[in-house]
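User: Run a structure prediction on this.
Assistant: Running it now.
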Amino acid sequence: PRRVVIGLFGEDAPVHTNSFLAACTGTVPGAAGVQARYQQASVRSISTGRAIAFANFPGGNFMLKTTAPSRGGMVKEERTPLAGPETKTDETNSLRHDELGRVSMAKGGGSYNFVITPVQKAPWLDANNVVIGQVLEGLDVIEDINKVRVTPRGGIVNAFDRGGLGLPADAPENAQDYLMLPLERVRIVKSRLA
């Protein structure tokens, strides 16, 4: 396995970086703790030359709870996001996606997903993401991930129909970045603090 080292801007985005650290070390509080860990998580999407989105957790990004069958035999499945209320935040900072290897998470929190920029400048991410870190070692790995072939979620039919990607007509232009699935499995083998 190849190595990527990420430095975090903890003072600039404390809630986001705490969420990131908890998922790195597998110390997420509550029932999600065992499942919400970056180790063995895979890349969610690759928008070549724009953004690499992580993390599909090995057991999924939701906790599933199945209820007992009702009188009619119906079994109900409830999906609860792994990210609890402690990840919600309104924090922002003045850092921008102005360097290759910037690491960011969605504004508002509520998720353990993160993005790494495979390009020098990615201003389209500034509106919806908060920069939390920088790749310090392994930029060559990020550049190689950026070259992995992708396909639109839902197949080639959706490549020609923005609406077919499940996007509303007024969705931001970069919304489709998160719907490009890698054709090769890209996985985080180990996640830990150094």
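The chain is about 10% helix and 25% strand.
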